[in-house]
Amino acid sequence: MASHSGTLYVGVTNTIERRAYEHKRSLVEGFSKTYGCPRLVYVECHGDIREAIAREKQIKKWRREKKVFLIEKMNTQWRDLSMDWSKRSTKLQTRDPSISLRLQSG
Asked: What is the dihedral of CA 99, 83, 65, 19, to 10 degrees?
């Protein structure tokens, strides 16, 4: 998730639609509410929670430049990917055991 100022949030969830909704409405206390990170700009799906958590930890250790490169490989305009869900009938389904890793931007 990302803020309009460029703050990045990296996290793991088992239901990306719910989590993006929570970030957009600042429903959960913590980093993304404090820094306002409502835009979903990158997502990875993993079939195993341990794999997703390991990837989250890996990305969290990266410098900002490397995270930006990762985002821009897939999303050059930093569009809010969750906006596509309302434009089509099939949403990104990420229920257990699929885990989504996202960099959220506001």
From this structure: -40
Amino acid occupying residue 43: V
Q: Which residues of 49-88 are buried (b: 16+ CB within 10 A; e: fewer)?
A: eeebeebbeebeeeeeeebbebbeeebeebebbbeebeee
33 residue type, one letter: K
Cα separation, 39 vs 83, in Å, equals 9
Q: What is the CA radius of gyration of the chain?
A: 13
Beta strands in 1-106 (DSSP E): 9-13, 39-46, 99-105
How far apart are alpha carbons 74 and 98 in whole angstroms?
20
Q: What percent of the chain has pLDDT over 90?
A: 25
User: Does pTM surpass 0.90?
Assistant: no
